[in-house]
Amino acid sequence: MPERSKLIEFRGGALDDLRDFPISARREAGHQLDQVQQGHDPDDWKPMRTIGQGVREIRIRDEAGAFRVIYVTKFADTIYVLHCFQKKTQATSKPDLELATKRYRDLVKELSS
User: Fold this and answer.
1) Please, which domain of life does this record's source organism belong to (predicted)?
2) Please, how many CA atoms are within 13 Å of residue 49, restricted to the half-sphere of its CB?
3) What is the CATH number of the domain that holds 30?
4) Considering the domain boundaries, does residue 101 fall inside one?
């Protein structure tokens, strides 16, 4: 029997950022998040321990560039999407990391209160 599908909650402006992706990257992000909802790993991901425990980054390569979706699944039955952005350089930019880290800390604080 398939695992029950998890809910997805976008934190801050993450949904608006995802909607700004080109259509092909947006579709791929949706497909990858659907896989996560069904209990599977995305096709291309890496852990983002610098942001927080259990945080992962979906990596999307598209003709329009490189796109990232940072999320965490370790809390209850919800996938929390912390940040979505287009990568402009080889390393993830400090503002993108700081924003995802702040949203992670805020989420942990909110869930523990």
Assistant:
1) Bacteria
2) 0
3) 3.30.2310.20
4) yes
